[in-house]
């Protein structure tokens, strides 16, 4: 495993090129000692960590015993499972009640045997705990996949070997290879580059796709081979574990010198090594001490809103239970006192304390306990078991849904917990990460403007959608949004004689390049009138960047390792235009120009200076010397920044370029302006001297000086043109966001990326659009500022929020849309207690909310604010470790199972492979699960009230004696066998509409957030239905059988006959009721509903043959079966119970139909086929009015195109570039 000195190292010294981001002054600064700025706090409170490099054994025992690198995201472990799982089960009010009754069943007052009370409770609780254990086991197995990854670790004597991540210790020296994740928080010692530079991708931490540069201390640069670590020793003294991703304070004691450390030397766990062959590092923080794990929170225990409301219903039913039990106990005490002494045949003189006429109050108290147990059927213990079974089945259907199967990764959707299925149908706000969730980090070069001429005939997705919708005459949203992406026509006819050129929409075979225009391709640009400007444009694309070319050894093709996807797309475009960047050295870049007068020519350009892009400068500049020894400055950046720096003679193309930029922006494209300037030798020499002085200065104002000097040279520019790239979102993201918006959901984007990138993504996925009024909240306050400066920044932000709220309030245009954009520093103040509600009130008035540069903890805090401030269901979705906090904080957490690790998935409640699957997860499965569970619970309470109250009526009828009218076996089988399967089939298979209809009518989803099927009106309605049914069943049967002969011999009914008949009526009534409730029947529902009724008759016949049946012996075959009165009573009572519900739903469907009622009727009458106009009209009405999404953006585009059409002759063909 040893790495010998013969291995070639990369020779680029990037510190000579980079200006702002990673330059450090020489070792005099590094050796400033513990008293240096960064190290001043080391050794004090919060800065007590000591790490012995390459001597990890010291950290395995006290006083330096640090946690292992083992991580866990499970809710339980071996020791905590039983207590925590039992606590979870008995958080449910009903389970507490049945625990109490199970205990009381051991006393003489219980009317049932102890086994009949304890066994169901043990079964329910045990089944739920097994389910929890299985779900947590899956989390444990995913944790083990991470913990069992391997990394090369120094074993001693200069030898390295592989070890599992979980076995790493603080102080270990590790070697990480290219494209591997860092296993812990490391101090960078050296890299494959000569000056210790390495590229790091932090997308899992902060969501940014741009690569970050890290640089080791110069003193550790010689540690470049395995065998050099044989005698390596050093001591790191640094800060204690904390969640701050962007700060680090510490120092390194090495070779009797002390060197200050800062974040540029720290490599964080779960970030990835890129563009660098290898690095060596020392482990500083392991496991849950690492910064990414410090940002995570303990796996929460989540309960759905329906389950919480179910507890309130249980309280109501328990109150009713106590009330009727009190009535029963009082009635019993009165009868004991007044009537028992006269009932000589009961031998009152021998009565015990349970029915002692001399102590009626005590007897009443004992009877109260009996009644509480007897009427316990009002509170259904089997409800929880049935819900668990239904939720597991629903989760299985989610897991098996082929429409959410990702062919590229082979992953399916996974319901990692089934407790929250119904919450999917009640989501109000979605909080989404950006990178890896919405985007796939790919840019496509689509159009460009050169010398005032626009090139590129292909259209963006926004343009194609607008054109096709106009052509269909469907401005009222009756077009299938997904059809737009399948349109392959070159031209679309808008009106008679007027066409819109969209270009070919087939996918490009070249990744990053979707440009098509013969005027520039294949060297045809040389025939353009301004060919010299075109040449300069292409050279700027090929030269103004920081990328590194890499040759694929297998194919020989060039690929580019770029800091941003934009840069990569520009280089691919330059190559396709005939300007291939193929080599970079320390001082030069080389390009191969194909279309020259002398044939393909290789050219060398010497790099003099590089002023890189950052979010403040919004531009990048490279100063080169060409083969003619001319010094040329090439600059690309945001159009507003470039235009402000143009010379008077450099604005020739500004009007046309500005028009093109506006058109590109309206088409949803990201734009940059390109410019240049030729420098005189003397001017450059003077400026470079000042620049080098600023670059080597030491002090807090170094960056300000560099920016000032950069401004001196980045002026008097000459505009060349502009680029337009299409930000490639993940497949289906715009359509998904459009449908979610039409379903009435609010969407917030929380990203660690810079504001400009987030805004561009907002435009790409149609959360932002042209014409939206943007409210930007920001502050210039730094991380460490004086108290008065903090106060000023806070007051400034509060004023910005107040002004934004006033702007929204005074807006008179009902179609006006506002977008709120806030950065991380401003968010720090906005989340404080005295301001967070002001911020939230402004945010909910805006159509879009985008939070930029947010830390993982801020994501969680924003999620908490929305969840608690609105009191509505929130869903958080992300793919990286930086999203774990918000995923756990939200009511529902959804993880994207992408290629960048599984941290988000392990912390989530549901996982999907692509953001677009969220649409189906919510709009289809969420809608179904919510309605199924809501109807199921309401029906459960209905049937148990119907059954339980008949017991109370008979007990009162029988003198409050505690006598049940039903046989014990009837009561045991009622919930377990005779009514369980139909209600489970309702919860598993019910569909008010099909999945296709759910997607076509997204407004149906609002039935969930509006809680249409589980509000108190509906709950009390079902309870009232149960009360009415119980009264009808009891009193009709009593009236019918009271003094009527039931047998041919003239015998009247006994208690067993009446009880069996009443029970038959209950079985018929509740099963007919559930049949009326169902909208969707399969053979399974028919089998369960009618099979349950049949099972009752099979049981009573078989039970009647057993001697243990006592009073029910042969009751069906000899007593009730031959009696016409029994069958007539069953039919009459069943009809009486269900006719009122039938009248109610008939009236509702006729006079006040719900949305799904209308759709069901249209589908049943086949109006969707016979009357397409009506069908389209109904579809357009079934969309929530929204100001975001693709549909809203297309509307804006349609208005723009129509405006142009008014200015054109109807006979013209319109070729647009936007």
TrEMBL record:
Protein residues bound to Mg(2+): 433, 435, 879, 883
SUPFAM superfamilies (UniProt xref): Calcium ATPase, transduction domain A (SSF81653), Calcium ATPase, transmembrane domain M (SSF81665), HAD-like (SSF56784), Metal cation-transporting ATPase, ATP-binding domain N (SSF81660)
Cofactor dependency: Mg(2+)
GO molecular function: ATP binding; ATP hydrolysis activity; ATPase-coupled intramembrane lipid transporter activity; magnesium ion binding
Protein name in UniProt: Phospholipid-transporting ATPase
Active site: 433
Enzyme Commission numbers on file: 7.6.2.1
Database matches in CDD domains: P-type_ATPase_APLT_Dnf-like (cd02073)
Major location (coarse): membrane
Highest classification ranks of the organism: Eukaryota, Viridiplantae, Streptophyta, Embryophyta, Tracheophyta
Originating species: Brachypodium distachyon (Purple false brome)
């Amino acid at each position: 495993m040893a790495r010998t000195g013969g291995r070639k190292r990369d020779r680029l010294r990037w510190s000579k090129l980079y200006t702002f981001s990673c330059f450090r002054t020489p070792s005099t600064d590094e050796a400033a000692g513990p008293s240096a700025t960064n190290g001043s706090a080391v050794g004090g409170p919060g800065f007590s960590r000591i790490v012995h490099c390459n001597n990890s054994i010291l950290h395995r025992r006290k006083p330096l015993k640090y946690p292992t690198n083992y991580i866990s995201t499970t809710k339980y472990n071996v020791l905590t499972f039983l207590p925590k799982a039992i606590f979870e089960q008995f958080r449910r009010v009903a389970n507490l009640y049945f625990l109490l009754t199970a205990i009381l069943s051991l006393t003489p007052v219980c009317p049932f045997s102890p086994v009949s009370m304890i066994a169901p409770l043990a079964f329910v609780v045990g089944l739920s705990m097994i389910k929890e254990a299985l779900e947590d086991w899956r989390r444990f197995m995913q944790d083990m996949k991470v913990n069992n990854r391997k990394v090369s670790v120094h074993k001693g004597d200069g030898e390295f070997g592989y070890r599992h991540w979980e076995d790493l210790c603080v102080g270990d020296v590790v070697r990480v290879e290219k494209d591997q994740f860092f296993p812990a928080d490391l101090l960078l010692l050296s890299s494959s580059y000569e000056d210790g530079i390495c590229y790091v991708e932090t997308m899992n931490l902060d969501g940014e796709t741009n690569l970050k540069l890290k640089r080791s201390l110069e003193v550790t640069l010689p540690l470049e081979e395995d065998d050099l670590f044989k005698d390596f020793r050093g001591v790191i003294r640094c800060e204690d574990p904390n969640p701050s991703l962007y700060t680090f304070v510490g120092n390194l004691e090495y070779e009797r010198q002390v060197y200050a450390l800062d974040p540029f030397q720290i490599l964080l766990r779960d970030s990835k090594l890129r563009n660098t062959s290898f690095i060596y590092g020392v482990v500083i923080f392991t496991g849950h001490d690492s910064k990414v794990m410090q940002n995570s929170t303990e796996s929460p225990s989540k309960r759905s809103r329906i389950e919480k409301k179910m507890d309130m219903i249980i309280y109501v039913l328990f109150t009713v239970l106590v009330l009727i039990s009190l009535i029963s106990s009082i009635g019993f005490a009165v009868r004991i006192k007044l009537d028992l002494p006269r009932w000589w045949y009961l031998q009152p003189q021998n009565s015990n304390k349970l029915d002692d006429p001399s102590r009626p109050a005590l007897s009443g108290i004992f009877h109260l306990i009996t009644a509480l147990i007897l009427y316990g059927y009002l509170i259904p213990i089997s409800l929880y078991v049935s819900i668990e079974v239904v939720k597991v089945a629903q989760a299985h259907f989610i897991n098996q849904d082929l429409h959410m199967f990702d062919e590229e990764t082979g992953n399916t959707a996974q319901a990692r917990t089934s407790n929250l299925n119904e919450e999917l149908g009640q989501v109000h706000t979605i909080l989404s990460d950006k990178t890896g969730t919405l985007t796939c980090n790919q840019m496509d070069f689509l159009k460009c403007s050169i010398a005032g001429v626009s090139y590129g005939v292909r259209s963006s997705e926004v343009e194609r959608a607008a054109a096709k919708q106009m052509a269909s005459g469907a401005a009222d949203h009756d077009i299938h949004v997904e059809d737009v992406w399948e349109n392959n026509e070159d031209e679309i006819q808008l009106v008679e004689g007027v066409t819109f050129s969209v270009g070919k929409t087939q996918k490009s075979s070249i990744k990053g390049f979707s440009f098509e225009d013969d005027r520039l391709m294949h060297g045809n640009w040389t025939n353009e009138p301004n060919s010299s400007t075109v040449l300069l444009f292409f050279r700027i694309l090929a030269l103004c960047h920081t990328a590194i070319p890499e040759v694929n050894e297998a194919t020989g093709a060039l690929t580019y390792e770029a800091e941003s996807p934009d840069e990569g797309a520009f280089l691919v475009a330059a190559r396709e235009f005939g300007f291939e960047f193929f080599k970079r050295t320390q001082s030069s870049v080389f390009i191969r120009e194909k279309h020259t007068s002398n044939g393909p020519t290789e050219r060398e350009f010497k790099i003099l200076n590089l002023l890189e892009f950052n979010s403040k400068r919004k531009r990048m500049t490279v100063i080169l010397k060409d083969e003619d020894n001319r010094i040329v400055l090439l600059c690309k950046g945001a159009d507003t920044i470039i235009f402000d720096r143009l010379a008077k003679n450099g604005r020739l193309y500004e009007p046309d370029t500005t028009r093109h930029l506006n058109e590109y922006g309206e088409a949803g494209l990201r734009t940059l302006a390109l410019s240049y300037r030729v420098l005189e030798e003397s001017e450059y020499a003077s400026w470079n001297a000042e620049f080098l002085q600023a670059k080597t200065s030491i002090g807090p104002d170094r960056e300000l000086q560099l920016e000032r000097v950069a401004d001196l040279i980045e002026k008097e520019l000459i505009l060349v043109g502009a680029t337009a790239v299409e930000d490639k979102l993940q497949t289906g993201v715009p359509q998904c966001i459009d449908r979610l918006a039409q379903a009435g959901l609010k969407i917030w984007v929380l990203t660690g990326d810079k504001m400009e990138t987030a805004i561009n993504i907002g435009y790409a996925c149609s959360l932002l659009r042209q014409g939206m009024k943007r409210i930007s909240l920001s502050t210039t306050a730094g991380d460490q500022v004086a108290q008065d400066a903090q106060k000023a920044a806070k007051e400034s932000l509060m004023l910005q929020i107040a002004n934004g709220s006033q702007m929204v309030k005074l807006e008179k245009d009902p179609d006006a849309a506002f977008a709120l954009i806030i950065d991380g520093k401003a968010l720090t103040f906005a989340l404080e207690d005295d301001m967070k509600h002001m911020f939230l009130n402004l945010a909910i008035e805006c159509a879009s909310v985008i939070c930029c540069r947010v830390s993982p903890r801020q994501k969680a805090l924003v999620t908490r604010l929305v969840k608690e401030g609105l009191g509505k269901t929130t869903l958080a979705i992300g793919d990286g470790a930086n999203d774990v906090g918000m995923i756990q904080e939200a009511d529902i957490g959804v993880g994207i199972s992408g290629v960048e690790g599984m941290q988000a998935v392990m912390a989530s409640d549901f996982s999907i492979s692509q953001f677009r699957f969220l649409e189906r997860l919510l709009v289809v499965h969420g809608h179904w699960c919510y309605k199924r569970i809501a109807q199921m619970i309401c029906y459960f309470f209905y049937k148990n009230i119907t059954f339980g109250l008949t017991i109370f009526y008979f007990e009162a009828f029988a003198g409050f004696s505690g006598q049940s009218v039903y046989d014990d076996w009837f009561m045991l089988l009622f919930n377990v066998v005779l009514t369980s399967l139909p209600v489970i089939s309702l919860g598993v298979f019910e569909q008010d509409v099909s999945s296709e209809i759910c997607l076509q009518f997204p407004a149906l989803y609002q039935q969930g957030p509006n809680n249409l099927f589980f509000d108190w009106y509906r709950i009390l309605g079902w309870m009232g239905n149960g009360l009415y049914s119980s009264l009808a069943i009891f009193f009709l049967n009593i009236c019918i059988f009271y003094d009527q002969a039931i047998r041919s011999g003239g015998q009247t009914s006994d208690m067993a006959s009446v009880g069996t008949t009443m029970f038959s009526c209950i079985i018929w009534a509740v099963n007919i009721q559930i049949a009326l409730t169902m909208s969707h029947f399969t053979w399974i529902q028919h089998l369960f509903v009618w099979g349950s009724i049949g099972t009752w008759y099979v049981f009573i016949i078989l039970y009647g043959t057993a001697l243990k049946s006592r009073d029910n012996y042969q009751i069906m075959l000899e007593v009730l079966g031959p009696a016409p009165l029994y069958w007539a009573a069953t039919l009459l009572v069943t009809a009486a119970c269900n006719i009122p519900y039938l009248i109610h739903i008939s009236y509702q469907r006729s006079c006040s139909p719900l949305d799904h009622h209308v759709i069901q009727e249209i589908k049943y009458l086949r109006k969707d086929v016979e009357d397409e106009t009506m069908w389209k009209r109904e579809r357009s009405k079934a969309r929530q009015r929204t100001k975001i999404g693709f549909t809203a953006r297309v509307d804006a585009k349609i208005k723009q195109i129509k405006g142009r059409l008014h200015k054109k002759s109807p006979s013209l063909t319109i070729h647009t570039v936007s």
